[in-house]
Amino acid sequence: MTFSSQPAVWQGAQPLCCIERRQETADAATFVFRPLQPLAVSYQPGQFLLLTVDIDGQPHSRAYSLCSSPSRSADLAVTVKRVANGLVSNWLLDHFHAGDTLTAQHPTGAFFLPADYSSAKILLCSAGSGITPMMSMARWLLDNKHPTEIFFLYSARHADDIIFRDELMTMAATHPQFKLFLILDTVTNAFPCYQGFLNPALFQALVPDLTDCHNFMCGPSVYMDAVEQMLQNRGFPMANSHKESFAPATPLTAETSDSNQQFRLDVPGFGASSDISNQQTVLEALESLQLPIIGACRSGICGSCKCKVISGSVEDISTQPGPLTEEDKLQGYILACSSRANSDLELEL
Ligand SMILES: Cc1cc2nc3c(=O)[nH]c(=O)nc-3n(C[C@H](O)[C@H](O)[C@H](O)COP(=O)(O)OP(=O)(O)OC[C@H]3O[C@@H](n4cnc5c(N)ncnc54)[C@H](O)[C@@H]3O)c2cc1C
Ligand code: FES
Predict the structure, then answer these.
(1) Taking the model in full, what pTM does it have?
(2) What backbone torsions phi and psi does residue 276 show, to the nearest 5 degrees?
(3) What are phi and psi of 80, to 5 degrees?
């Protein structure tokens, strides 16, 4: 008999134990996870974890960007911020502690800092909980002694709302290449910061030269729209601007002006079938069949609802570039939340 010391490949949902919980601000906490069994963990700074928790006996899944950096340890950290009436985020903050377990899919996501990033500068713009993927990227760049100049712009309401405040201050004090700009609704005398919203004049003053630079940003859609506008006005090549949205402006529904058409939906792997209308998303139809499909963002962002069309065709109703690669699409993969049936469908989950 042989024993392998290799960690297992991370397939499907795996149990993670919370080994530490840190309060970051009054309404945000970091949870550090370690797999219950040795697992091969790999991810790129900026990617997210799809966590599933049981609340009142029902599984609920949500995406959370990793704020940890693969340069530090195999432990995985996410920082969760309270959301008004939010189910999962508030449950985690109110009920989840060190020693508790949940399940997670392998880290994934198309928003990440490439390992071969080679531009002279990088702009990391975030607001609120959008700081989490930026922190992963900044930690990774500094840990790897990457020579790029980092312009880290973060907007928050108040000094007490700055997530990772102490670490950011230390990074700025110890790494001259790390330019930290805190933009607060209410200024403080305790440390240098700017008041108000990020605006074109302030942006120009903070980052006067945008040559040889990529922009990564994450925050509320109004914030990211404003940053995009400022970049465009300065002639920034927008192909070098990358964004992650945590909250969809409007979740996708399949409502259409087309007349209601009924098709047949078959999922042979689960022996399940039903009617499917072109007025509903494929995700809604699969959920009605109580099949194990995860719709974490319901807006074509997270990729949790990826499934494969074996036969038939769907209409893609996504409103933004999603996580599917061209190769995925060629192989027949779709996002169930962003698709509606155009014909009878046979799917593989
Ligand atoms: C790729 C990705 C990465 C993410 N990373 C993080 C992260 O690092 N930290 C973090 O705290 N959250 C993150 N989120 C958001 C998180 O997945 C949840 O969507 C969010 O916390 C709300 O879920 P909920 O169950 O608490 O609220 P729900 O019960 O799903 O929603 C309650 C209400 O809040 C609104 N809402 C949903 N999401 C948000 C939001 N983000 N901000 C404000 N209002 C919202 C909904 O429209 C709804 O009205 C990420 C989302 C995605 C897609
Ligand atoms: S549920 Fe997130 S992409 Fe479909």
Answers:
(1) 0.90
(2) -135, 135
(3) -110, 135
Distance, CA 255 to ligand 2 centroid (Å)?
17
- Domains of the chain plus CATH, in order, are 8-104 (2.40.30.10), 121-243 (3.40.50.80), 262-348 (3.10.20.30)
What ligand 2 atom has the least distance to the C-alpha of 300?
A: 3
322 CA to middle of ligand 2, Å?
9
- What string of pLDDT tens digits covers the 349 residues of the chain? 445 568 889 988 899 999 999 999 999 999 999 999 999 899 999 999 999 999 999 889 999 999 999 999 889 999 999 999 999 999 999 999 999 999 999 998 889 999 999 999 999 999 999 999 999 999 999 999 999 999 999 999 999 999 999 999 999 999 999 999 999 999 999 999 999 999 999 999 999 999 999 999 999 999 999 999 999 999 999 999 999 988 765 556 666 666 889 999 999 999 999 999 999 999 999 999 999 898 888 888 888 899 999 999 999 988 777 889 899 999 999 999 999 999 999 999 9
Ligand 1 atom at minimum distance from 133 CA? 8
Question: Which residue matches tokens 């570039």?
Answer: 321
Q: Which two tokens mark 335?
A: 């996002």
* Closest-lying ligand 1 atom to the alpha carbon of residue 80: 11
Matching residue, tokens 């990227």: 137
- How many A from CA of 263 to the centre of ligand 1? 33
Give me the residue label for tokens 């704020």.
67
Cβ-based burial of 71 (10 A; exposed 0-12, middle 13-18, buried ≥19): middle
CA of 41 relative to ligand 2 center, distance in Å = 23
Radius of gyration (C-alpha) of the chain in whole angstroms: 22
Phi-psi region of 67 (alpha: psi -120 to 50; beta: other; left: phi over 0): alpha
Residues with CB under 6 Å of ligand 1 are 48, 62-65, 78-81, 83, 85-90, 129, 132, 244, 246-247, 297, 301-302
